[in-house]
Design a protein that fits this description.
two-stranded antiparallel ribbon, 2 helices, alpha+beta, about 40% strand, four-stranded antiparallel beta sheet, single chain
Length: about 130
């Protein structure tokens, strides 16, 4: 294969660092392994972030997500790891990870974690009539 899984998250400069805007990324084919049984767990990972100085490069993000495929991890741990790694790479104003795991034994699991820069003020929501 010409590409391999990687834990390296590449970034690029935010093209509009003075503006608060949201980037939404959906990863519908995330897989990792159950640390108890070794069976695959499937999830959709939803990433929402307000960049500060850096944005995550999408091919690097794809290879990063692929790196979990053969790794045993509890849903809560893997979701928090993804948040921590993205915060370390980008230092965003805001970042939310929503991991929606497929059914396993009749139970769906959704884990939501967030990071907010202490200096960042969210823009006021606009309510239209």
């Amino acid at each position: 294969m010409s590409t391999q899984p990687s834990k390296t998250l590449e970034t690029f400069d935010n093209p509009q660092p003075g503006r608060s805007y949201t980037i939404r990324i959906e990863v519908p084919e995330f897989t990792c392994l159950c640390p108890k049984t070794g069976q695959p767990d499937f999830a959709t990972i939803l990433i929402e972030y307000v960049p500060k100085r850096l944005c995550v490069e999408l091919k690097a993000l794809k290879l990063y997500m692929w790196s979990f495929r053969d790794q045993g991890a509890f849903h809560e741990a893997v979701t928090n790891t993804i948040l921590d790694d993205l915060v370390a790479a980008m230092a965003p104003n805001f970042l939310r990870i929503r991991a929606e795991f497929n059914v396993r034994g009749g139970i769906y699991t959704t884990v939501i974690v967030e990071h907010r820069d202490a200096q960042w003020q969210a823009p006021q929501a606009v309510v239209l009539p």
